[in-house]
# Entry
Amino acid sequence: MCSGRVDLDFILRAFANGQDGVFIGGCKLDECNYVTHGNYDALANTYLCKRILEIIGLNPKRLRTDFMSGADGNLLAEYTDDFSRQVKEMGPLGTSEGMDADVVTLKLEAARKLVPYMRLVERERLRVPVKSEQAYTEFFESSGINTLFDDIFLDKLAISQIMQLLNRKPLSTGDIAKKLDLNPSDVSRHMMTSSRHGMVRYDTASNCYARV
# Structure
């Protein structure tokens, strides 16, 4: 399968299902058998997913992508052995990051809900115009890309996480902030926005927000 077919959702789903690390192997850049050069899509998804992992509190080194030819079996063995060693050193997903397993799952599922939105954003604002490793490196590692990504993604991720929590049971602003390690004032802002959009309602009897 072309590495370009490894959708962002596939990666997040693997982590949500409890995988401690994800390794993607693709053809060498600029040696794709297809005109689409899907391995550059794999490279872009790697950069995007690493940033998502970092934002939700997981070590981005748990995801790795390497490119090699079909004849590079020795390189594949070397890369996978090295990655397996690194993942074992990091330990189970969430452990070294100091996160409860339930919170890890919730955050990953919240991120998965945003994948369709991220596909649109990637096409419009995060698409690298030139397919070259240097161009992708300069774009995704530039000083402004994290700021742009945060502007695009942070609020939507916070709301998605809150909705995942409220799907379980009604909660107060304080409970939500504590559970997700968010600022209570930010939670209140998100709740006002979500209430206007008809996503949540406020129960005055319990002083909690609930899904509509």
